[in-house]
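Bumping my old thread because nobody answered last time. Still need a sequence for this structure:
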């Protein structure tokens, strides 16, 4: 069995950002939402990719995996950390949510985020949903900022009025 690095298609010195991009490229290609002719094999590959990513994305588990792989370099199977049934979809959804959250705060254009997702092999419908979530997140941030601005302005008005009233006492 190949190592988790081989499954995702990265080397051992890869950064977390590169790991995320490689994960999305592989996961989107094998995602069960696609209509694959060999659905069972693609489901297995998708779960294996999510399993590899869940280990490699966390520094401690990645360190332990690397150490175990050094001790037994010929067999990636002996150092597997299988996911529970149904966890692969959760790993994928959680990682996609993190991608969306990072784009909400980044200030990148929606078109750039959309093209980035398509470049990673994301189906157009999923990319559109992700961009819609980014737009909704930014709109929520804008509403929250508007409320803060209103209350800051209101507080400044009240304080200014109180200072003005107080200063007339001494005239």
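Sorry it took so long. Here it is:
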């Amino acid at each position: 069995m190949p190592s988790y690095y081989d499954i995702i298609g990265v080397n051992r010195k890869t950064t977390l950002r590169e790991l995320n991009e490689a994960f999305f490229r592989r996961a989107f290609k094998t995602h069960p939402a696609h209509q694959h002719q060999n659905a069972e094999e693609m489901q297995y590959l998708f779960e294996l990719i999510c399993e590899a990513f869940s280990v490699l994305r966390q520094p401690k588990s990645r360190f332990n995996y690397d150490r175990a792989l050094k001790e037994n370099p010929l067999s990636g199977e002996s150092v597997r950390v299988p996911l529970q049934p149904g966890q692969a979809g959760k790993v994928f959804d959680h990682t996609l949510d993190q991608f969306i959250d990072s784009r909400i705060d980044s200030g990148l254009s929606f078109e750039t985020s959309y093209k980035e997702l398509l470049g990673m092999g994301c189906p157009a419908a999923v990319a559109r949903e992700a961009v819609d979530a980014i737009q909704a997140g930014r709109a929520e941030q804008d509403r929250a900022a508007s409320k803060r601005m209103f209350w800051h302005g209101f507080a400044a008005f009240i304080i200014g009025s109180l200072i003005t009233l107080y200063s007339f006492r001494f005239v």
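Helices lie at 4-8, 16-30, 39-56, 59-71, 87-106, 110-119, 124-168. Let me know if any region looks off to you.
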